[in-house]
Amino acid sequence: MEKRIKQKEDETFGFNLWRICRGCVPTCVKLVQRQVLCTNLCQWCGMEAETDWHAFIGCTIAKESWSSAGLSELLLSRKHHFNTLQDLVFDICSRESAEAAGRVAVLLWQVWSARNDVVWNDTRKTLLAIGGLALNGW
C-alpha cells in the first residue's frame, strides 16, 4: 500500500512537471486567452498577471515558499538567466542532483496545490507549510 501511495505521489509530481514543461499549466492568463471568464490576476497576491513564471517564481508567496523549502539558492542562481519557467525547470532537472530536482518537483506541486486551495476552497496554507512539505516530502 505504501509503495502505491509513493508511486501515485511521484506520478502527480511528474504530471505537474510535464504540464510546466509543455506550457499547459492553467494559469489565469492562459484561461483568459482561452475565453474563460475570469480575471488574469494572480490568485494569491492580486497584483500581477498570473503567468507560469509569476505563479511559481515571481509571486511573493512563491518566492517565500522556495525559501522555506531551503531551495532559494537554486532559484536565485538561475532566475535571471532564463526567460521561461520551462527552461528554468529543465536546467534544474538536468544539472542538479536527483535529490534537489525531486525537492523542486515537490515544491512546484505544493505551490500549485496551495494556489488551487485559494481558488477552489478559499483556504490559504502558510508559507512554512508549502515549503516544509517540499523539504520533507521528498
Folded structure, characterized:
- The protein is mostly helical.
- It has one domain (2-136).
- 67% of the residues lie in helices and 0% in strands.
- It has 8 helices and no strands.
- The chain has helices at residues 2-22, 28-33, 52-58, 60-68, 72-76, 85-95, 98-121, 127-136.
- Helix 1 (2-22) packs across helix 6 (85-95), helix 6 runs antiparallel to helix 7 (98-121) and helix 7 packs antiparallel against helix 8 (127-136).
- The protein is globular and about 40 Å long.
Radius of gyration: 14 Å
Name the overall outline: globular
Average pLDDT metric = 85
> What is the string of SSEs from the N terminus onward?
HHHHHHHH
Number of continuous helical runs: 8
The first-to-last residue Cα distance is 18 Å
Low-confidence stretches: 1-9
How many strands appear in the DSSP assignment? 0
Count of the separate structural domains:
1
Describe the biggest sheet?
Answer: none
Tell me what portion of residues adopts beta-strand conformation: under 5%
Helicity range of the residues?
Answer: 55-70%
